[in-house]
Structures are given as structure tokens and as C-alpha cells.
Design goal:
Cofactor: Mg(2+)
Organism: Aquibacillus koreensis
Strand content: 5-15%
CATH topology of the largest domain: Rossmann fold
GO biological process, one term: small molecule metabolic process
Distance between the termini: 10 Å
Strand order of the largest sheet: 3-2-1-4-5-6
Pfam families: Hydrolase
CATH architecture of the largest domain: 3-Layer(aba) Sandwich
Protein name: HAD family hydrolase
Length: 237
């Protein structure tokens, strides 16, 4: 493998950490971390269902952010107003300024960078917001800015094959020697496989694999597995 491309959210860091911290700051509800993880998953599902409409300009980013809170909270019978949902989003943004890479991911990036592998990022989201997270995680230490691909800047998002083609053209990569790593089965795995890339599913949420024609080349449940997978490949090259 010569080119390794990463998703960001919930692939390089644990996205539930800022989510849990935000909830605990704003809500006096005795939820365990396990229950908060389920609430997080519900909010992600709402967000994913609204993302295409947001990208198409049918709803605003603010509306999507509010809805992913109000709709998810409703599933758990937690009363919430739109104003409180907006406050949660502001708190969540504040907590995202504290995110940190999985320890094993930092080791993996160092290993791949030192071996001269071509590294890149492909993430869905608004350009400024995703750039903030990339900066907070310190990813420019290993991945040059010109290899940061954000859907909001490109005008096309995963799983659209066009976004993968854009990266192929800009990086002049060999898709047979390229692997994409992400947590979203529909966006990351299906998108990468349709583009003809290899794909690793970072399934640390232990979601059930959807039934369909596309399957990951490898499924992993912990960042440690990513490091252990690449170490012998590097050593044997």
C-alpha cells in the first residue's frame, strides 16, 4: 500500500467524548456513558439522514445541527427546546476544541509518515469546521494541507464517486495501492469500494454490517488493530 487516506470523525478520535462532555455540562439527566453513546449514535443517524439535504441547500447547517439534537433527544424522551438544542451545539463545538487522536493512531501516522507513504484526509462537513478539527488533532504534522480534502470545500461529498475521483486526480494515486479507512459504512466503505479502492471499516461502535454487494477488505474494532495491521506490512516492504 502506497497511499493511505483517512476519514476524521470517529475514525481518528472518539467523537463520543466531546458529545458526552457537552451533555453532562447542560443536562441534569442520570445517563451512563453507555446510554450517552446510544444517544450519540441516534444523533449521528439523524445527521446522516439530513446531510444530503443540507449539502443541496434545502436546509441550513444550523437547522441540521438543531434537528440532530431535537430528533435524537425525542427518541429518548428527553425534553428539549430548539434554543437548548442550539446551546448544545455551541457547547459541543467548544468541546471539539479539546479532541485528541487515539494514541495508536498517532503512532500509526508517525510510522507511515516516516516510511514515506502518501497520506491524505477525506472528510464530509463544512470546510471551516472540519479544518478546525484537523488543526486541533495536529494532523498537519504528518499530512500536508494540500492533502486535506473536505466535502464543503470540494462541493461534493462521500459516498459520491466523484469525490474519490478528485483525490485520484490530484494525488495521482494508484487505486490498487490505495486504502481508505473510515467509520461510516455507507459513506466510507461503499464510497471507497465503488471507486475501486481498498477499504478498512473502523467499526469501533460494533455496528452490524449492512447486507449488500459492497464489503470492506478489513473490519477493525479498535485503533490498536490499525497499528497492528500496518506494522508488519511496513516491516516486510
Amino acid at each position: 500500500m502506497e497511499t493511505i487516506i483517512f476519514d476524521v470523525d470517529d475514525t481518528l478520535y472518539d467523537q463520543t467524548v466531546p458529545f458526552r462532555n457537552s451533555f453532562k455540562r447542560l443536562f441534569d439527566v442520570p445517563f451512563s456513558d453507555t446510554e450517552l453513546d446510544k444517544l450519540y449514535v441516534a444523533s449521528r443517524k439523524v445527521s446522516d439522514s439530513l446531510f444530503d439535504r443540507c449539502e443541496a441547500g434545502e436546509i441550513s447547517i444550523t437547522e441540521m445541527q438543531i434537528r440532530r439534537v431535537t430528533d435524537a433527544w425525542e427518541q429518548f424522551n428527553i425534553p428539549i427546546t430548539r434554543d437548548k438544542a442550539q446551546k448544545f451545539q455551541e457547547t459541543y463545538l467548544d468541546e471539539q476544541h479539546k479532541i485528541q487522536l487515539f494514541e495508536e493512531v498517532e503512532q500509526l501516522l508517525e510510522l507511515l509518515h516516516n516510511e514515506g507513504k502518501q497520506l491524505a484526509i477525506l472528510t464530509n462537513g463544512e470546510d471551516k469546521h472540519q479544518s478546525m478539527k484537523i488543526k486541533q488533532l495536529g494532523l498537519e504534522r504528518w499530512i500536508p494541507k494540500e492533502n486535506h480534502f473536505i466535502s464543503g470545500a470540494l462541493g461534493v461529498a462521500k459516498p459520491n464517486t466523484e469525490v474519490f475521483q478528485i483525490i485520484e486526480d490530484r494525488l495521482k494515486l494508484d487505486k490498487k495501492k490505495t486504502v481508505y479507512i473510515g467509520d461510516s459504512f455507507d459513506n466510507d466503505i461503499v464510497g471507497a469500494k465503488k471507486a475501486g479502492w481498498q477499504a478498512i471499516w473502523m467499526n469501533h461502535r460494533k455496528r452490524k454490517m449492512p447486507v449488500g454487494t459492497h464489503k470492506p477488505d478489513k473490519e477493525m474494532y479498535h485503533a490498536k488493530e490499525m497499528l497492528e495491521f500496518f506494522q508488519p506490512i511496513i516491516i516486510n516492504n
